[in-house]
Amino acid sequence: MGKINKLQMPIRGVPLLRRSLETLLASKLGEIVVVLGHDRSHTQALFEDLPVRTAYNDDYQSGQMTSVHCGLASLTQASEGVMVALGDQPALTVRDIDFLIDAFLNRKGGEVMIPVFEGERGNPIIISRQSQQEIINGKYNLGCRRFIENNPALVRTVEMPVSSILIDLDTPIDYRNYCDSHSNHDKLTLLQQEN
Predict the structure, then answer these.
(1) Thinking of the domain 6-194, which architecture would CATH place it in?
(2) So where are the chain's domains?
(3) Is the dihedral of CA 106, 109, 112, 114 positive or negative?
(4) Which one, of 33, 32, 40, 82, lies nearest residue 58 by Cα?
(5) d(CA 104, CA 51)
(6) Which one in 26, 58, 139, 181 has a CA-CA gap of 20 to 30 Å to 73?
(7) Taking the model in full, what pTM does it have?
């Protein structure tokens, strides 16, 4: 996104990260840990009043998996599984999150649940309690493009009814396209920030 912190960008008037957290909080999820890295203080200010915990990944520049490891290591509540969610998926709904949770709880085998839509892998994923430590220790690399193919016994996929799991905002074009399909107000705000 260049100089703009995408997590602060508005989606229907609400910062992207806050919108994502409000969706997660309204779902069946329990403990929520937000892993911070870049622009930590400004990012945390977006959700200080929400009932979530934070963890700081001082190695965030080494890639997304370091944040996954940091988040998994920061959990305090025992659970059957852990959802690894991104902060930049504005199309996700409470229904999507709960659908994934139900699919995970009712799965037949597998330690990692990955949502797909028409054959394309999306996010968020869910990791079983049994696999958390192995992932932290580096035995499994969830970021590997061939993770599913390399670990067929470990992975279960779930076909999602909608494409929201595929939508994330990585570039200004992604953001503009999303705003164009939902609201012109947010797009104008981005253009003003760029000028």
Answers:
(1) Alpha-Beta Complex (3.90)
(2) 6-194
(3) negative
(4) 40
(5) 24
(6) 26
(7) 0.86
